[in-house]
Write a structure and sequence with these properties.
The protein is about 60% helix and about 10% strand. The chain has helices at about 1-30, 35-60, 70-75, 80-85, 90-115, 120-145, 170-180, 185-195, 200-230, 245-270, 270-295, 310-330, 330-335, 345-380, 385-405, 420-440, 445-475, 485-490, 495-515, 620-640; strands spanning about 520-525, 530-535, 535-550, 550-565, 565-570, 575, 585, 590, 595-605, 610-620, 645, 650. Helix 9 (about 200-230) runs antiparallel to helix 20 (about 620-640) and helix 16 (about 420-440) packs across helix 17. The chain is globular, with a radius of gyration of 27 Å.
Amino acid sequence: MIVDIGYYALLAALVLTLYGIFAGLSGVHKNSENLIASFRTALLVVTGLVVVAFGSLVYAFATDDFTVRFVANNSSSDLPLFYKITAVWGGLEGSLLLWQVILVIFTAVVALRYKKSNHETLPYTLLVLAFSTLFLLFLLIGWSNPFERLFPIPGEGRGLNPLLQNPGMIFHPPALYLGYVGFNIPFAFAMGSLLSGKRDDNWILTTRRWTLVSWFFLTTGMVLGGNWAYVELGWGGYWAWDPVENASLMPWLTGTAFLHSVIVQEKRNSLKFWNLMLIIGTFALSILGTFITRSGVLNSVHAFSKSNIGPAFLVFIALVVVGSHVLLYLRQNQFLVKEKAKGFWSKENSFLLNNVVFVAMCFTVFYGTVFPLLAEGVANKKISIQAPFFNSIMLPLGVVTVFLMGLTQVLGWKRTSVSLLRRNLIGPVVVTLAYVVLAVLTLSTSPKMLLLSSMTVFALYINGYELLQSLRASFLPKGDQPKPSKLKALIQDRRKRGGLLVHLGIVTLVIGLCGNFFGHETAFTLYPGQSHDFSGYQLTFTESQEFPVANTRTLAAVIEVTQGDREVARLKPAKAFYPTRPEPMTEVAIHRTLFHDLYLSLSSINDDGSATLNVFYNPMVNFVWASMGLFALGLGFSLSYKPVQKRGGSLLD
């Protein structure tokens, strides 16, 4: 009964969305407030219906309703309730429904929040969002119905993929979806601005917070995904240039470029065409990422099995790209402005170069991800592009990006005099050169690592110094005014401080990446009582243990980890045996310190009682995870900043 309610709720949502689009188009054409109001109301009702459908699917999983094919294929009665809920988005149909529920909730927020402030463009914006909703509803009802019945009814489900039975399942996919779907909002407002013929920057102002939040969730999803791979797959790493990893990186790169580029439009009323192109590209790449993940056309540990929705996604992507570019071409005279002359050393030029570098990085990832697919489809040749290709191009581009992250802070708008530039760069250059000398003398490292880490020191010095100077200036009294309170001083200059904190988060992440140059690994077999020395640790295999954990039977090797005469950890790398899967899964054990991880992965417990281990020494890896704290803090500062619009459509601080 509940399942039927969910299915018919989706059908009703489809009908209402079609009606809403018709009412919206008619309302815009006839300039009818009543029709437009009816359009908004239809979208709000669609939101409620989709939420009901999603709740119905959650109920089906929670109650082990194996009459539903999707539940039977992705859950089992022995699965803990926590994983039954996360299994809702553990397969194709449920993940599309989660995508849909986020989209309609965001659409409802837009319809209610901007009813008065964006009166002229809102109907067009909602139409763009409604067409996206319509596309997903057609997929859910026609190709990927999460409520499809199964007959005969099995007595037990197949269970959730063991790789997905991880706490990260509740955070990583929803975070990515919030990022992907979130970029739909600035795209819709940009298209709404083009369709309505608006010349001002209002869509930039309106979507600023949407863009920031979308970027943050996409970043969070990527970092959480890396952590999930790190603790679940047993290979000692967190990024492998997997096609689905790349699918999230591409819109992140263009979205990051867009975040920087809109600052120039706000401050200098330029790069308008760039910004429209970037947001179109970011949204299209978000849809492409969905296609790669859900069509099954590329082999990936993250991807779903092959499905027949691939052609539908390709058609939708083509419509988005072609339609938006045709609209942009028709409206280009309204958005192209005459560039004002500026000096070579200026923030404008630095931001423009930043755009070029990010787009180049995105193209590299796109080529390396999509070219094997094209080669197989067109020439029937299987080509695999591996990590060395990506690293050889992305590393130098990443070095340039980190360098610009520091340099841009010391440049002024329009132009910067050579004397001022020299004065601003003396400190960071001296510190960077001192680091290079120290690194050459004390570290046995590669030129690549030296180049990346030296630019990281450069960016760290400038952004850290700028943040401290901003804080120091806020705590000092100004003229005859009394000294500000600590809280008031702390929350001043929020936009700048938010950006600097995010930059410091990127620096922290890059420090973690630099640790890859110093990591090493080994593999060995120990009998009970035997020890092995590795990277300053002594690892002693004491015994093997077998014990139940949730719905698994776990076989672990107990490893005593000592440094000198002191025991620092007792680790239990294991193999977990799931009743619904024939092959055991690897459960890693990690001894964490601030500056490195000792990472143990059990290869096997052998018939003679010995244990074979893969052991990794991963320096600085925890800096990658720590970067999220700075991202969140920077987001908080940036969201609390509200720009003021002046006459003529441009923006002031």
